[in-house]
């Protein structure tokens, strides 16, 4: 992520300096979380800044940068080892693959490096700070008795060997004044060796082993120094004073960032928001009567000075760097650490700035630069105040890091810390003190390199690979042993279902195929190759329905049938009136006077629906649905999909796609899933989403391919495109003929309450009505079975319930205020199968697999379809 040139920012002054600073901010911003606002809170790759690295490199680097762990803890992995989720054979397979020729090379006696690493994986090897280890050795019996997990045969062998060599030493040295016996007598203060108990001999054995391991440290290679952490002013001040300047700055910056990013929820909008984050901040805090905190007293004067000079965000940031003494060569590191100090808000500012189309109230360009400038200004004021108040340091902050030396001191492990892991390993592998005492300096060095080189992170890395290997082998065995499903030659499926590739649809598809064995299912990214901004008939704004990396250039709107236009207008006015009343009640309840009146007058009434939703959530949800009929959009709607204007736009004839554009989208969609022949009479295109009553991150359960929104409109749109006669004519000319009796039906699968809603069924030809009704009943049965399979993970669901009861249960959960994670899904995805469904049909994949339809026989030699 760092510039590679000798002068990374070319700061020759003037505009080039500011351009370089803008570039540095852009580089540092790659580390920020790419998480959208809560309305489109879809999953994302937390390692997106390290995609050029291998997985292991990325998690290690990510752990260093973000201050988190790269893998699970060893205790977690060993718990999986005890359960059989990881096997010793998996660990050995990973070690054999990585160690190659070093596997069989003896290290101590007959023990090889493979034996050493396997022992360190199978049993915990403890390490600690110098103070903790000193206390442990002094206050426990660690130096007088074996570890509890040392096998009994090793205990007996090592103790017997110690007794034999001590007795031999005594016979060779009259009086016992020298050699092993003399040392032991001095250590334990016992002369009459015949009276020693087994516990004494064990103590002698363990103490001797510790003494030899401690002596071997003298021949160990120098310990590796970890990479130095980049230090900001906050870091040196925190170590010197215990005062965290980030806490001071974040307390103010969080409140301001929340006000700046507000999407109309706040009753009092931020003044001057349209001027951008930096100038809005300066204007807000330049006013008299600002913050009373002592460290912020200079802020008003600074804000007025910057406003009077017309200073922009980049110039202010450059000025702050100069005052903090941060040279251009450090800008990348300093900005990265600074942005990560409040990464969530920094990332949100960046995401809303880049994709203003995903929010109702976008923010001006340059907002992230303003965020950085404000942050650096506040950092500078906080550092000056803490240095003066806590240390009496009135010097400029530019020299603060040099005036507080030793803040990045590294304390190498002492002899005890280096000897203790080897001491534990020697017990587990049965290495005796006498055996170790014969090692040459070079052999000691090799032992320490092996033991210390296989440290905590390396062990967890091997555990992770073994963990994944176990799952991978089980999966590939299952796929390899599973006989492919083949429909008879020239067989035409009764109906076909195309769903999102989402792992939750894996079980749904499987149950459809069980209920309707003569049906066929396929999977594709759930936006169905329809990239669009979409506005429902009751929506206030367009939302992008496509992958987050794509920006649409076409708009599609749902419109109410002309026959219901007057009814729709009345319901729209009712919605607006109720929405306005609800907003006034909400804001009023937060005021002093009106809040007291509303609480006294309406508080008791508000408890009735609240208690009903808690005690009878499903029933209350159905009552609310019926009552909402007075404001709900009339059911007779259609998509304004075909554009007649030459250029796309948001209104009128500019909305929609041209016929040629629809044909391009439809053809690519069909070719991607391999459905260019063998069409059934009914083809269902089912998008998905998740409806719940009390999950603030609801959109994380919606369709990720639709940018965190439900994918029902996409399924409806592609179905209408494929039913369009001109589209069919064009794609037929391109080699994808669709039979005249094939009809496409868009649909929506609610993965929370397991329901399927079909769209535009009034347009289905009369010749297909019977087949449509049968398919609907089979969808309902499949949903019952799917709910039953899902319910085994719910602690609220009895294990002996029937499939219909399970369906009732998931419907209840979707309306239950107590269920903030009603679905408990979308967290177990572990693999993606890119293949024809015949390879996995009938195979139970436990809702863990993405299923992407792909027919290699229909791809070109370059794998163009596979690449898409």
Give an overview of the whole structure.
The protein is of the alpha/beta class and 868 residues long. Helices cover 50% and strands 7% of the residues. It contains 32 helices and 11 strands. It has a 5-stranded mixed beta sheet, sandwiched between helices. It has a 4-stranded mixed beta sheet with strand order 4-3-5-6, covered by helices on one side. It has a two-stranded parallel sheet with strand order 10-11. β1, α23 and β2 (520-524) form a beta-alpha-beta unit. The radius of gyration is 35 Å and the shape is globular.
Spatial order of the strands in the main sheet?
2-1-7-8-9
What's the number of extended β-strand segments? 11
Quick check: average pLDDT?
A: 90
Biggest sheet details: 5 strands, mixed
Percent of sequence in beta strands: 5-15%
User: Structural class from helices and strands?
Assistant: alpha/beta
Rg for CA atoms:
35 Å
By DSSP (H or I, 4+ residues per run), the number of helices equals 32
């Amino acid at each position: 992520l760092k510039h590679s040139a000798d002068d990374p920012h070319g700061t020759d002054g003037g505009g080039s300096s500011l351009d370089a600073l803008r570039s540095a901010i852009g580089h540092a911003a790659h580390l920020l979380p790419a998480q959208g606002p809560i309305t489109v809170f879809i999953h994302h790759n937390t390692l997106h800044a390290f995609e050029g690295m291998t997985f292991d490199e990325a998690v290690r680097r990510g752990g260093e940068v973000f201050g988190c762990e790269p893998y699970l803890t060893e205790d977690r992995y060993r718990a999986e080892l005890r359960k059989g989720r990881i096997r010793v054979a998996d660990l050995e397979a990973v070690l054999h693959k990585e160690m190659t020729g070093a596997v069989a090379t003896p290290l101590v006696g007959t023990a090889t490096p493979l034996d050493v690493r396997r022992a360190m994986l199978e049993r915990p090897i403890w390490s600690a700070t110098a103070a903790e280890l000193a206390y442990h050795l002094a206050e426990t019996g660690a130096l007088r008795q074996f570890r509890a997990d040392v096998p009994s045969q090793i205990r007996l062998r090592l103790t017997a060997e110690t007794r034999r060599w001590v007795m031999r030493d005594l016979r060779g040295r009259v009086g016992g004044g020298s050699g092993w016996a003399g040392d032991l007598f001095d250590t334990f203060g016992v002369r009459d060796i015949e009276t020693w108990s087994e516990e004494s001999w064990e103590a002698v054995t363990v103490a001797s082993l510790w003494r030899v391991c401690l002596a071997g440290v003298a021949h160990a290679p120098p310990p590796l120094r970890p990479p130095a952490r980049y230090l900001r002013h906050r870091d040196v001040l925190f170590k010197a004073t215990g005062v965290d300047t980030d806490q001071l700055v974040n307390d103010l910056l969080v409140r301001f960032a929340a006000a700046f990013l507000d999407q109309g929820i706040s009753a009092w909008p931020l003044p001057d928001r349209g001027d951008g984050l930096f100038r809005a901040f300066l204007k807000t805090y330049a006013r008299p009567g600002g913050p009373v905190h002592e460290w912020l007293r200079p802020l008003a004067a600074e804000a007025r000075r910057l406003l009077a000079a017309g200073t922009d965000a980049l110039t202010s940031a450059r000025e702050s760097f100069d005052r903090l003494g941060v040279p251009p060569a450090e800008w990348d590191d300093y900005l990265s650490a600074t942005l990560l100090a409040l990464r969530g808000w920094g990332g949100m500012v960046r995401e809303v700035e880049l994709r203003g189309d995903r929010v109702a109230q976008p923010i001006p360009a340059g907002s992230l630069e303003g965020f950085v400038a404000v942050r650096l200004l506040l950092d500078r004021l906080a550092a000056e105040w803490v240095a003066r108040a806590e240390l009496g340091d009135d010097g400029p902050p530019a020299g603060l890091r040099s005036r507080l030396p030793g803040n990045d001191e590294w304390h190498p492990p002492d002899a005890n810390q280096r000897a203790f892991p080897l001491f534990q390993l020697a017990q587990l592998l049965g290495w005796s003190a006498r055996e170790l005492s014969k090692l040459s300096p070079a052999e000691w060095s090799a032992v320490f390199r092996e033991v210390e080189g296989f440290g905590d992170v390396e062990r967890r890395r091997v555990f992770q690979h073994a963990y994944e290997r176990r799952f991978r082998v089980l999966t590939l065995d299952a796929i390899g042993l599973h006989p492919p499903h083949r429909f008879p030659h020239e067989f035409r499926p009764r109906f076909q279902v195309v769903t999102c590739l989402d792992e939750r649809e894996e079980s749904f598809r499987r149950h459809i195929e069980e209920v309707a064995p003569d049906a066929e299912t396929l999977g594709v990214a759930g936006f169905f190759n329809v990239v669009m901004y979409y506005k429902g008939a009751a929506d206030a704004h367009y939302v992008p329905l496509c992958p987050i990396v794509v920006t649409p250039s076409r708009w599609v709107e749902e419109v109410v049938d002309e026959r219901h236009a007057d009814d729709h207008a009345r319901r729209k006015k009712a919605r607006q009136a109720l929405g306005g009343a609800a907003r006034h009640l909400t804001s009023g309840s937060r005021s002093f006077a009106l809040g007291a009146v509303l609480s006294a007058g309406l508080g008791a009434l508000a408890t009735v629906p609240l208690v009903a939703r808690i005690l009878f959530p499903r029933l209350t949800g159905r009552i609310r649905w019926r009552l909402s009929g007075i404001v709900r959009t009339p059911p007779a709607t259609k998509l304004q999909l075909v554009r007649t204007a030459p250029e796309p736009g948001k209104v009128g004839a500019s909305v929609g796609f041209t016929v040629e554009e629809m044909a391009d989208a439809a053809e690519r969609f069909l070719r991607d899933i391999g459905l260019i022949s063998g069409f059934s009479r009914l083809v269902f295109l089912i998008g998905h989403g998740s409806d719940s009553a009390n999950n603030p991150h609801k959109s994380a359960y919606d369709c990720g391919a639709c940018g965190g929104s439900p994918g029902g409109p996409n399924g409806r749109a592609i179905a209408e495109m494929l039913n369009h006669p001109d589209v069919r004519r064009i794609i037929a000319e391109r080699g994808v003929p669709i039979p005249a009796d094939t009809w496409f039906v868009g649909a929506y699968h609610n993965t929370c309450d397991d329901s399927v809603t079909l769209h535009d069924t009034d347009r289905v030809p009369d010749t297909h009505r019977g087949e449509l009704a049968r398919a609907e009943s089979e969808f309902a049965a499949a949903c019952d079975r799917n709910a039953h399979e899902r319910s085994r993970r719910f602690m609220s669901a009895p294990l002996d319930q029937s499939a219909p009861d399970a369906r009732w249960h998931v419907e209840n959960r979707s309306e239950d205020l107590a269920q903030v994670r009603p679905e408990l899904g979308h967290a177990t995805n572990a693999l993606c199968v890119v293949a024809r469904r015949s390879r996995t049909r009938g195979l139970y994949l436990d809702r863990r697999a993405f299923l992407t339809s792909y027919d290699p026989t229909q791809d070109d030699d370059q794998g163009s379809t596979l690449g898409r």
